């Protein structure tokens, strides 16, 4: 996607041909900074401290992290250590394990001297696959938006609510939940998006809003608690969110607060869709509430907010009294029964074992 007229992806090879450049998302929307990752430790830090985030981008960064490790030391021990180190960074997004397994399985049988080059190639392949998947999700989601638009008066926008950032910043390009929106715009369908700010880290306010400002997507930023009210008043035609892990029976784990939006959508008969790239499906898990590990992040993310100070510099301010206790579960699980459909790269599946297996028959 474009930033000030220049095409960007979220991750690319540095001009030196081996460092890995990423958009350092900690500074958005106020500063656009690029960071270069030069070893596996830096890749792990970038994922853990959320310079990069979003399930698909976490996976791609980890794949490049293994390649960086192989450049320094291509031994068997180093390969396993890189896998462990990167896997320990963030526990919920399953794309991390999927990408790490894919690279490790490919590199293990090779002579050590061949591992770095193939690691980079494999990471680039995963990145390219992510883009293709998102385009396909976009086409499949576009069909849903088109149907809603057909029932509207000419020029009346389709109102979509989204949570967190499942946009191009969370992937390599296009995003998952945003891909149908971007394609609808390309087709001339009027859209308007309500963006949940998404406390505590405000990925909606800081990242999705930034994407939409740069892309010219009509949008309104709302506080996390406003969605139910808007739905009650008929102001939301559909919800589209992303996911960090979806179970084999269609339970959806996503950014904390997603579940509450799904409940409000069900109560107000608003369709609730999840944009789901297949690497985000955890075929080994059925019951998302019981089986998915939920990342508990630092209480500082709740106690402090980051923004632009009066001096024009990025600053953190405390919003709670010192001494109060904060908890910060980063994700929640929306049960399959609340999900209208899973928009995958192969089509829209019912959120059920049967629905997912019909689209992915190779999973038995
Ligand atoms: O904690 P984050 O910012 O990594 O969480 C991101 C989300 O919850 C996204 O909605 C999800 O990863 C899907 S991104 C395509």
Tell me about this structure.
This protein is of the alpha/beta class. It is built from twelve helices and 18 strands. Helix 1 packs antiparallel against helix 2. It is globular. The strands form five sheets. A seven-stranded mixed beta sheet has the order 8-7-6-9-12-17-18. Strands 13-10-11-16 form a four-stranded mixed beta sheet, with helices on one face. The protein binds 5-S-methyl-1-O-phosphono-5-thio-D-ribulose. 5-S-methyl-1-O-phosphono-5-thio-D-ribulose (MRU) binds next to helix 2 and strand 11. 5-S-methyl-1-O-phosphono-5-thio-D-ribulose binds next to helix 2 and strand 11.
Keywords for this entry:
2 domains, about 375 residues, alpha/beta, Rossmann fold, binds 5-S-methyl-1-O-phosphono-5-thio-D-ribulose, 12 helices, four-stranded mixed sheet, seven-stranded mixed sheet, Four Helix Bundle (Hemerythrin (Met), subunit A)
The gist of it:
It is built from twelve helices and 18 strands.
Small-molecule binders here are:
5-S-methyl-1-O-phosphono-5-thio-D-ribulose
Tell me the count of domains.
2
Could you give the order of strands across the largest sheet?
8-7-6-9-12-17-18
Which geometry do the CA atoms define?
A: globular
Order of helices and strands: EEEEEHHHHHEHEHEHEEEHEEHHEEEEEH
CATH class of the largest domain: Alpha Beta
Q: What class do helices, strands and sheet pairing give? A: alpha/beta
Q: Sketch the major β-sheet.
A: 7 strands, mixed
- What name does CATH use for the topology of the largest domain? Rossmann fold
* Arithmetic mean of pLDDT: 97
What's the number of extended β-strand segments? 18
Poorly predicted tracts of residues = none
How many helix segments? Answer: 12
Question: So, CATH architecture of the largest domain?
Answer: 3-Layer(aba) Sandwich
């Amino acid at each position: 996607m474009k930033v000030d007229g220049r095409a960007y992806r979220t991750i690319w090879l540095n001009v030196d041909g081996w460092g890995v450049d990423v958009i350092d998302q900690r500074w958005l929307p106020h500063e656009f900074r690029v960071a270069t990752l030069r070893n596996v430790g830096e890749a792990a830090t970038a994922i853990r401290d959320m310079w990069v985030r979003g399930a698909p981008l976490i996976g791609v960064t980890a794949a490049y992290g293994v390649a960086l490790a192989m450049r320094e030391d291509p031994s068997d021990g180093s390969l396993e250590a890189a896998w462990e180190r990167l896997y320990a960074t963030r526990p919920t997004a399953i794309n991390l394990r999927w990408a790490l397994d894919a690279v490790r399985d490919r590199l293990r049988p090779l002579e050590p001297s061949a591992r770095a080059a193939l690691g980079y190639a494999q990471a680039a392949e995963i990145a390219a696959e992510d883009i293709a998947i998102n385009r396909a999700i976009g086409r499949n989601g576009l069909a849903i938006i088109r149907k809603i638009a057909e029932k509207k008066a000419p020029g009346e926008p389709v109102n979509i609510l989204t949570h967190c950032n499942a946009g191009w910043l969370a992937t390599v390009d296009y995003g998952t939940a945003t891909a149908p929106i971007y394609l609808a715009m390309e087709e001339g369908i009027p859209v308007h998006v309500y963006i949940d700010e998404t406390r505590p880290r405000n990925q909606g306010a800081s990242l999705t809003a930034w994407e939409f400002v740069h892309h010219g997507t009509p949008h309104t930023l709302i506080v996390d608690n406003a969605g139910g009210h808007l739905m009650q008043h008929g102001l939301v035609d559909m919800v589209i969110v992303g996911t960090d892990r979806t179970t084999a029976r269609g339970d959806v784990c996503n950014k904390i607060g997603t579940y509450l939006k799904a409940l409000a959508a069900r109560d107000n008969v608003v369709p609730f869709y999840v944009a789901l790239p297949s690497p985000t499906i955890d075929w080994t898990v059925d019951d998302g509430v019981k089986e998915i590990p939920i990342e508990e992040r630092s209480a500082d993310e709740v106690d402090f907010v980051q923004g632009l100070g009066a001096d024009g510099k990025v600053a953190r301010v405390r919003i709670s009294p010192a001494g109060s206790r904060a908890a910060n579960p980063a994700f929640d699980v929306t049960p399959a029964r609340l999900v209208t459909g899973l928009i995958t790269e192969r089509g829209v599946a019912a959120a059920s074992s049967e629905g997912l297996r019909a689209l992915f028959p190779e999973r038995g």
